[in-house]
User: What shape does this take?
Amino acid sequence: MRTKLKLLIIFICIIFPIITNAQTVISVSEGTDQIAVALESAMDGDIIELVTSGGTYNETNRTMLDKFLTIRAADGLSEKPIWTTDDTLAIIELGNSLNITGIHLNGEMGANRTQNGIAVSDSTFGYTLIAEDCMFWGFGTENYNGFAIEGTYRHWINDTTQILWHAEADAIGVNNCMFGGTGAIIDFSYPLRMENGGRPEGACLEYYIINSTFWGQSPYSKASIYASAAVDYSDSLDIMPSPIFWVDHCTFVGVGDKGIYARYIDGAVIKNSMMVSNEDKAFRIHGGNSSASNILWWDCPGGVQYQKDAPEGTNILNEDPMFMDTRYLFTGDFRLPESSPATGQSDLGSTLGDPRWWTGSTTTSLWPGSGGRMTNITFQVDMSDILSPNYAGQDTFYSGGDVWISFGDWESWETMVDPDSDSIYTVTVELEEGQEIKYFYGYQTGADDNTDYVGETIPTDCSDDGYRTIIVPIDNITIPPVIYGSCTGVIPDGIDITDIDGTYIIGSNDDFPWEGATNGAGSPDGEKIPNLIDNDYNTKYLVRAIDSWAEIGLDTYTKVTGYTIVSANDAPERDPKSWLFQGWNANSEEWETIHSVPDNPMWLNRLMPLSWIFENNKTYKKYRLHITEINGDSQSLMQIAELQIWGELSEPSAIDDQENMVKKFTLQQNYPNPFNPKTTIAFELPRASEVNISVFNLLGENLMTLINQKMKAGYHTIEWNATDLPTGIYLYKIEAGNFTDVKKSVLLK
Assistant: This one.
């Protein structure tokens, strides 16, 4: 292993410069399509040198590199040149070897957000990619994770369609680089299978990742380094050649479901590194020849995983790294104090992780901008009481006056507006992610808005210091409206549906044990529990953190206008963070999303009610709150004290039936795809039909029948469990009346 690493370093530092220095250096100033112009005259071995410090090099289209080149920043620049594109797929489509040095690749600054930094072209073999002292920032879209470096055989041509291709690298070297705001950062996870012509080592023979930082800081974030051999997924890894995989002195923070996944690589080496605040695992390794040593991990619920005979690591520390900035997840400041448990723990006696964060570092942020990106927060306040003719307070509202939100003690303020003339004032403000913001509302009391104004007095029940407080989340959010001078949120119009006789909930609280958890919230299977909704704030619902739900059913149709959640909040990390509020469509037999919350800030106080109000024209008899994310409890629990649904009694309307009507036969692509081992297949029937869905291999052999029965019209889903099938490509076929259709799916174990 060490020999291979030394060879790569020699190649980077000595051989590569000797090759390239004999060729032409092409100097390029900032501007639009200037790199494309330089490439027209470049030959194999040439150097393209970006000479404008901090300059923006924007390319209209992605850059196709089919020549062996060095692209580097000129010596002496104070800031990295920024390379971006208007292309949605990638900044660089790589078709040959590349040495890229000192460049900032940015996926956010072009006309469109870009999915990938570097994506390898189809049928590119034997290439080497070396990245030194580079910044990769801001790749991925809402529908696609995105990659800083994408070397596998999945190639997306838009947000929903992908094609498969075959590319194989000799070596990938990453040294002194930074990756942030990106999905799965370095991805070689799905090599072409051996039975389809791929080599056993997978999409790359050698990986060397050293002295680098990986910061998720993105709603699209997945694994940081995801590599895979192309073995036949057997347990006999030692009989298959594996790629060399070496990670040394790297820092991984908030990078999604795992920091490093060296899948089916027997001989992976991970050492002297840190993994902190990942969504799930710190790392996962396979094989008896793999090793992990001198690792600090913290706040990774899935811990560390040793699979397929991988030995347990040595000097694996589960301790808080004590970053100097407590808001590190938002700022990207990972500096370590001398007292950090990471100090002196490497195999050479130095500190763990990327050396740029070691004790003595004076750099507070090395990321684009200030290190924390900006988020749009919409604030709302209900001024009905103040504007009422019956208001008896001392400070009356000046007719035609303004309403403000003030940050700090009138240090800055924004004017709010009443767009719907309903006395609910609103304003959207751009704030830095992760900041703790102190604010309050105020209004004009006289003709001179410079002197005639007053701020609200906030009850001590929801404020310790006279201010409202919010920790700015990653996603743009709208804060539910609050009543001026009160801790209470605005209650939606209508009656409390959850208080109607005959209402039930399928869920679980302290009085009911979990039994199998197959009914979402963990209630006894199928049992309807009426007393969970009792308008008693001392009740607590406990449900699983991810993909859990609480179902509310009624005997009559209702049309909802909003809902209220009261936080139990024994611990803020158990607050619900993201969820869907859904209604049951009896015609299609599917849940329909009525309202969603992608990133709710923490409740500030125990038993604090927050309400969400929305427009809805459809009626339902059954609802559910589907929790998709919490604030981070390691026990995977979520607590709320009360759930109330507001609305009116109604009957199903003609528009409901019309909107729910299926117009044609349809077979949809299974999701997820690729999958392991379960996936869902959806299909639509415009009329009742005999339905057969079967699974075939590529030889046309019928492997199993998933369903064979008469089904009513509507939207349907079935689950396919492929536990007993090996990895491969499969076909599933639907026959419904005279309608037939076939889709391809990929099983990856």
About this structure: The chain has four domains: 2-357, 381-483, 495-656, 662-747. The helical segments are 2-21, 34-41, 328-331, 384-387, 654-660. The domain at 381-483 is CATH 2.60.40 (Immunoglobulin-like).
